[in-house]
């Protein structure tokens, strides 16, 4: 086992085989100490995310090594293989008409028709989930059942250039893996077909159709086969999905998502005051269909306004990223100003332009990016709580003059439906409430029992328009790059590209050259953190944001410190950025 640095809040454990990585994941998950927040298995690695305030990286490293040494490499491999013997058998009907069939046929030295024959002849097993919610990384069962067995299919490289959109249901190959895209998304795998089976539905008690350990057989989708396969889908596993920090019968802080019952279909949620509500498979909520007693009326949503809270951490092993407020400090401050708990949902406003009609007596605060804000025509100071004196009072955010995103908190919090324990919108996975629309009524939760804090001044400067320094620490794949590339990363002045959003900020500047030994190499998919700086084959770095996939296949040269993450939210296209090596202890 090699332990690789991954910033100031994670370690990446690397193994010689998939079975060893899965065995270590199982061993560490059975007895993890306080402060270990998440274990994310992948092709040859386990990403170990910690809370540095509870467990230092040095102590985490000692725990990981002692546990792995106690098991031994052979023991870990056997445990990992054994874990994958417990799954169900799932048939999937496929239309073999993918855009890359000819490319795959050429690589395999066979005809296009033989690609389908060879693919359906293999029994696959889901080793882990990642990239997107419900995306299964399938490997041939033969190489897990017998580590010395020859792979039944030749490995395939990813496409040199990723597609901007891969349709939902696409069946694809990369390296030794087969995957199925649960929803439309970017992707660089080789497409060989498509299926009509729904891989992911957050409204189900078990959102992912295919779980680690499940065995998959692909069947050509002739009419008879498709009908037979649809009727043969197995029941879900015995245990419902566990939302971290909650129990099925008593959701923590009103944010848990217990499983539905036969008498009450759909997902049972609780509002921020504990009142039960019902969300169906399509995310509908009864409070949005009946006029809520206390709500915001959206007169103009601006370019893009999202509901955000502190996200849904702890579900990365299912392919579900944390998402949540991009400027966490601004989110927490806005909630504190109106007396909300810090996890209460707020509105994240891109570039300004939001206009809301408030209920009488509503307290609001605006933080983050700054620009003109008015309530019924009266200017509102930044970082201050103000009260609506009448029903329908108009809150108006003008264009932001500094920064990119403003945060609007309303006392009581936005009471949108919760998905997997969170009200946050994940723009890549399309989880959580949709972006606000004109005319929409947005329900509010009950007001907290405590008072609105009396605050005269919050000494916070607006986001800067000039160059921003972002502190970084070495990433796990720094050795994939020339030493000159590391110097360039820290010495160059980068520019935020227009090709940036909540999934990641691409930085324009000099290309970062790979070490000659890494040129042309394929990196097996491994866990990623927000703040990871991935480098694509063209040498361009991208800083991953809160909505980025939980696994990725581009090497990470560096990782932003946790303290630097919030700065990403306010960086505008064209703004200069300098990456600086963080000092002090990890």
Automatic annotation (TrEMBL):
Ranges for region Disordered: 240-286
Protein's name in the database: 5-oxoprolinase/urea amidolyase family protein
GO molecular function: ATP binding; hydrolase activity
Biased composition (Low complexity): 240-256
NCBIfam families, sorted: urea_amlyse_rel
Keyword Thylakoid: no
Keywords in alphabetical order: ATP-binding, Hydrolase, Nucleotide-binding
Residue ranges of every copy of the Carboxyltransferase domain listed in the record: 1-210, 317-586
Domain of life: Bacteria
Signal peptide: none
Pfam families reported in the protein's UniProt record: CT_A_B, CT_C_D
InterPro entries tied to this protein: CT_A_B, CT_C_D, Cyclophilin-like_dom_sf, PxpC
């Amino acid at each position: 086992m090699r332990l690789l640095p991954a910033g100031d809040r994670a370690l990446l454990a690397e193994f010689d085989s998939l079975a060893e990585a899965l065995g270590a994941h199982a061993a560490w998950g059975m007895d993890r100490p306080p402060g270990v927040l998440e274990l994310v298995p992948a092709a040859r690695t386990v990403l170990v995310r910690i809370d540095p305030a509870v467990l230092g990286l040095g102590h985490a490293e000692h725990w990981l090594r002692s546990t792995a040494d106690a098991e031994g490499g052979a023991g870990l491999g056997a445990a990992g293989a054994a874990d994958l013997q417990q799954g169900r058998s799932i048939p999937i009907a496929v239309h073999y008409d993918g855009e890359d069939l000819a490319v795959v046929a050429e690589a395999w030295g066979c005809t296009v028709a033989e690609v389908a024959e060879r693919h359906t002849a293999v029994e696959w097993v889901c080793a882990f989930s990642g990239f997107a919610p419900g995306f299964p990384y399938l490997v041939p069962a033969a190489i897990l059942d017998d580590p010395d067995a020859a792979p039944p299919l030749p490995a395939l490289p990813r496409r040199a250039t990723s597609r901007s959109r891969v349709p939902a249901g696409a069946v694809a190959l990369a390296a030794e893996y087969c995957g199925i895209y649960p929803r439309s998304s970017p992707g660089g795998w080789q497409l060989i077909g498509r299926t009509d089976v729904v891989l992911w539905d957050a409204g189900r008690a078990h959102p992912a159709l295919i779980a680690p350990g499940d065995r998959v057989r692909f069947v050509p989708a002739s009419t008879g086969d498709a009908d037979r396969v649809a009727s043969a889908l197995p029941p879900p596993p015995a245990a419902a999905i566990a939302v971290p920090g909650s129990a099925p019968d008593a959701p923590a802080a009103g944010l848990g998502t217990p499983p539905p019952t036969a008498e009450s279909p759909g997902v049972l949620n609780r509002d921020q005051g504990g009142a039960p509500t019902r969300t169906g498979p399509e995310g509908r909520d009864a409070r949005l269909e009946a006029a809520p007693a206390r709500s915001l009326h959206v007169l103009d949503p601006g370019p893009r306004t999202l509901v955000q809270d502190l996200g849904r951490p702890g579900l990365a092993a299912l392919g579900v990223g944390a998402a949540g407020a991009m400027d966490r400090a601004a989110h927490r401050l806005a909630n504190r100003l109106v007396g909300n708990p810090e996890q209460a949902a707020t509105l994240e406003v891109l570039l300004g332009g939001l206009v809301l009609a408030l209920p009488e007596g509503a307290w609001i605060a605006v933080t983050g990016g700054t620009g003109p804000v008015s309530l019924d025509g009266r200017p509102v100071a930044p970082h201050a709580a103000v009260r609506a004196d009448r029903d329908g009072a108009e809150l108006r955010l003008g264009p932001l003059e500094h920064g990119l995103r403003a945060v609007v908190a309303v006392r009581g919090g936005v009471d949108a439906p919760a998905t997997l324990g969170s009200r946050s919108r994940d723009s890549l996975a399309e989880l959580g409430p949709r972006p606000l629309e004109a005319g929409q009524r947005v329900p509010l939760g009950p007001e907290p029992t405590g008072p609105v804090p009396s605050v005269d001044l919050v000494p916070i400067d607006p986001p800067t328009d000039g160059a921003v320094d972002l502190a970084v620490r070495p990433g796990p794949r720094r050795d994939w790059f020339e030493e000159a590339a590391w110097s360039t990363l820290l010495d160059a002045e980068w520019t935020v590209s227009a090709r940036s959003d909540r999934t990641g900020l691409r930085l324009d500047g000099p290309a970062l050259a790979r070490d000659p030994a890494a040129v042309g190499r394929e990196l097996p998919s491994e866990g990623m953190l927000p703040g990871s700086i991935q480098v694509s084959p063209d040498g361009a770095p991208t800083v991953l944001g809160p909505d980025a996939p939980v696994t990725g296949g581009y090497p990470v040269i560096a990782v932003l410190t946790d303290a630097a993450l919030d700065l990403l939210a306010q960086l505008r296209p064209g703004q200069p950025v300098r990456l600086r090596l963080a000092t002090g202890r990890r």
